[in-house]
Design goal:
Layout (H helix, E strand, L loop, with lengths): L2 H22 L2 H13 L8 E8 L2 E7 L2 H16 L2
Antiparallel strand pairs: 1-2
Helix pairs in contact: 1-2, 2-3
């Protein structure tokens, strides 16, 4: 898989999650996601995001692919929200 394809998969993940956070999350959620995204290593393809939503219990993501990326994202977003 080419570097460009890997980066495109990460851009798709970014755009899908960001759209959900902008629509239903807080400004802090957006900032925290952008911070996580900037720090995440992008050497392997990102999982394909099937759907993303934000509710009272936080960010929910449906995806196809490796669990580790989404696990790190959800964990990071949960840890940040507990700091309030």
């Amino acid at each position: 898989m080419s570097d460009e394809t890997v980066l495109q998969s990460w851009q798709k993940l970014h755009d899908c999650i960001l759209a959900a956070l902008i629509a239903h999350g807080s400004d802090r959620d957006v900032k925290d996601f952008e911070s996580w995204f900037a720090q995440e290593t992008k050497t392997a393809p990102a999982p394909a995001i099937l759907h993303a939503s934000v509710g009272l219990d936080g960010l929910k993501v449906g995806y196809r692919g490796a669990d580790d990326v989404v696990d790190r994202l959800i964990r990071a977003m949960m840890n940040v929200s507990r700091d309030d």
